[in-house]
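A quick aside before the break. I want you to see a complete sequence-to-structure record at least once, exactly as it would be stored in a machine-readable document. Don't worry about memorizing anything.
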Amino acid sequence: MICGFGRTGNTWGCETFGFLPDAIISSKNLTAGFFPMGAVILGPELAERLQRASEAIEEFPHGFTASGHPVGCAIALKAIDVVMNEGLSDNVKRLTPRFQAGLAEIAKRPNIGEWRGVGFMAALEAVADKATKRPFDSKLSVSERIANASTDEGLICRPLGQSIVLAPPFILTEAQMDEMFAKLNRALDRVFAEVA
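That is the input. The structure line, written in tokens, reads:
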């Protein structure tokens, strides 16, 4: 889950937004993407219901094909330790205001309808008309063009609908953040010159 383990400024996105979920499903963030690993973390009500059902049939029947894999568990423990105890989560909190200020500056462009995000996760929505927030014709594939132009600049971002998603690494420095925004601005200049 992209909003887990510090990306929003807290360990879990639900903490940032102030709610208690029934369950948390987590995967690639457990091992920083180095090994396939997933987890299902249940809240008290679901855990109790599963416990009652298991007691009734004297077991908890589910697949064990990859559960508790020692390599995955070792990688997950280390990845979580690094994020939580070696300053990465603190770096996200420290640089979030700078990140959001940079996004707000880019959102002043005539073809960015809005930006939204929290912590080190954000999206910039490309629009044909800022006043009405009219999107570009989908045939123009604007977000894909922006992603490709960004890649040409050496920046990886994700196209999603009419938006570009940014999720920088937790080890990002201030200088690297400035470089990220410079590259994105050059990519936006190029694409908007072609389609606007």
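Two observations worth writing down. The chain has two domains: 13-86, 89-195. The mean pLDDT is 91. We'll return to this after the break.
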